[in-house]
């Protein structure tokens, strides 16, 4: 049986679901979590949307956000945990959830799924497109609220339909979601034009650390805690900054080093153009992602850990010259 029918069959036969997406949630993870929760509720199922990290400012206006809550002690066991946009409960910060079957719905190339049912399709621009197909298979009426969440997922994961994961199917699904009631102008306004001033201040501070090397093929920036604190910014305010590095015509590979709280570790975001596969570098550092967008965490202080990552990036780039 193909995984979508397998998942639809499992959902029809069961009643009580926990849903979760990855830590540091983005538009695809929040959009999928909300659309799937609303869809299951429309079928008369119990659906608990679990979120360990707060919903980023840009996504707080999405329909159903108040449904997301931190995991607590569940009175009764779940029939399944549905993992969206990630393949393991650790990525969702849910190591300790009571044991139940896991269902994985994800489009990440690098995932290592261990679910009872795993549906992984890296060819989709957004996991939201997979949720759309699953809800249609379940004959859930796609209302404007569900369509809005799925459109936001697709809009953000394709970089406003600019990344090379945008194909005819992505544009076609976007049009279908508009037919179901999503409003592209309103959603773009909510997601991209609602920055707090702290985010723009932080962007200025981070971009002023720009370094270019390898004849401009590689660019990197650093954010330390002082930069974040002096801008009054939150970790989520870093989203989108790395795209400015990719806007430089010569840049093929960009890295963003972020100290966002605990000084004993920092996060690394990588982006690339064309066939350069940064998910392979991220996997080498126990992270993951897609060919052109990947990330990982280094458990060292920022200044101590950056040189090793830069060396790996330089080796990678010279091997692909
Ligand atoms: P970002 O740079 O926006 O944080 O992440 C880019 C992409 O890499 C996203 O698709 C995200 O899911 C993936 N990614 C980022 N950090 C990690 C990580 O620590 N582990 C895994 N498996 N994927 C990551
Ligand atoms: Mn995604």
Low-confidence blocks of residues: none
Give the names of the bound compounds: guanosine-5'-monophosphate, manganese (II) ion
Mean pLDDT, rounded to whole units?
A: 95
Radius of gyration over alpha carbons? 19 Å
Order of helices and strands: HEHEEEEEHHHHHEEHHEEHEEH
Structurally, how many domains make up the residues? 2
What kind of assembly state do the chains in view correspond to?
single chain
Shape: globular
CATH class of the largest domain: Alpha Beta
Walk me through this protein's architecture.
The chain has about 325 residues and is α/β, with parallel strands linked by helices. The chain has two domains: about 5-190, inorganic pyrophosphatase (n-terminal core), CATH 3.90.1640.10; about 195-320, Roll (Diaminopimelate Epimerase, Chain A, domain 1). Helix content is about 40%, strand content about 15%. The protein contains eleven helices and twelve strands. The chain has helices at about 5-15, 25-40, 125-135, 145-155, 170-180, 185-190, 195-205, 225-230, 240-245, 280-285, 300-320; strands at about 15-20, 45-50, 70, 80-85, 100-105, 115-120, 210-215, 220-225, 255-260, 265-270, 290, 295-300. The strands form two sheets. It has a six-stranded parallel β-sheet with strand order 3-2-1-4-5-6. α2 (about 25-40) links the parallel β1 (about 15-20) and β2 (about 45-50). α2 (about 25-40) runs antiparallel to α4, α4 (about 145-155) crosses α6 (about 185-190) and α7 runs antiparallel to α8. The radius of gyration is 19 Å and the shape is globular. The mean pLDDT is about 95. The chain binds guanosine-5'-monophosphate and manganese (II) ion.
